[in-house]
Amino acid sequence: MAKTFVCLSGKRYPDASQKTTQIAANAFYGNTTVEMVFIQGKMKKLAKKSLAFSRIKDVTLPDSLQEIEEGAFMYCSKLADVEIRKV
After folding, report:
1. How far apart (Å, rounded) are the C-alpha atoms in residues 19 and 12?
2. Looking at residue 37, what is its pLDDT?
3. Percentages (nearest 5) of helix, strand, coil residues in the chain
4. DSSP letters of 27-81?
5. What is the mean pLDDT of residues 43-55?
6. If exposure means fewest CB atoms within 10 Å of the residue's CB, which of 24, 65, 79, 83 is most exposed?
7. CB within 8 A of 37, min separation 6: which ones?
8. Which are the contacts of 77, defined by CB distance < 8 A and separation ≥ 6?
9. What is the C-alpha separation between 63 and 49, in angstroms, rounded?
10. What percent of the chain clears pLDDT 70, i.e. is strictly above it?
11. 8 Å CB contact between 47 and 23
12. Which sign, positive or negative, has the C-alpha torsion 30, 3, 11, 39?
């Protein structure tokens, strides 16, 4: 079953000790269940290989994004759409 990962950055989560400002290196590396990633808020960085080798098809990012590190989308063969939205 396909899943969507939603991150509303700048908000605190029960299992997070600090505010989210990036998608960590290898966060979705090789993930085969998430097909959509929707990030909203003050996200600043997609770290190295953060979405690499995943089956993600659609990614929505905020215009606060400042950096996309090397290989962030490496071998995302299903990726069809990347949208950057004004926050």
Report:
1. 6
2. 86
3. 0, 35, 65
4. TTTT-SSEEEEEEESS--EE-TTSSTT----EEEEETT--EE-TTTTTT-TT--E
5. 92
6. 83
7. 4, 5, 7, 23, 28, 51, 56, 58, 59, 60
8. none
9. 20
10. 77
11. yes
12. positive
What is d(CA 65, CA 39) in angstroms, rounded to the nearest whole number? 10
Q: How does the average pLDDT of the chain come out, rounded?
A: 81
Closest by Cα among 50, 53, 15, 56 to 34:
56
Strand, helix or coil at 39?
strand
Question: Would you say 17 and 49 are in contact if contact means Cβ atoms under 8 Å apart?
Answer: no
By C-alpha distance, which of 44, 35, 29 is closest to 4? 35
Q: Which pTM does this prediction carry?
A: 0.77
Q: Which two tokens stand for residue 70?
A: 């090397």
**Average pLDDT over every residue of 24-45:** 86
